[in-house]
Design a protein that fits this description.
Calcium-transporting ATPase, cytoplasmic domain N
Length: about 80
């Protein structure tokens, strides 16, 4: 684990940045669907299906959290860090 970005009321999500065994740097976020969905690539086939599933869950009164991840370059990480 390289960094933990704690949940706060402004970001409304929590993130961790890790270096995996292959040496790649991954940022993982968890948060409410209303926060995470706008951050996703809209061209992904999975986004539309995920939205449908979330709508079904909400109709049943269920609350959800989403988890998303993205690989970032060493340069991106160093600039941010």
């Amino acid at each position: 684990m390289l960094n933990v970005i704690e949940f706060n009321s402004n970001r409304k999500r929590m993130s961790v940045i890790v270096r995996n065994p292959e040496g790649r740097i991954i940022i993982m976020c968890k948060g409410a669907d209303s926060i995470i969905l706008p951050l996703l690539h809209k061209d992904s086939q999975n986004v539309e299906r995920t939205i449908q599933i979330l709508e079904n869950f909400s109709k049943e009164g269920l609350r959800t959290l989403l988890v998303a991840e993205k690989e970032i370059s060493e340069v991106e990480y160093n600039v941010w860090n």
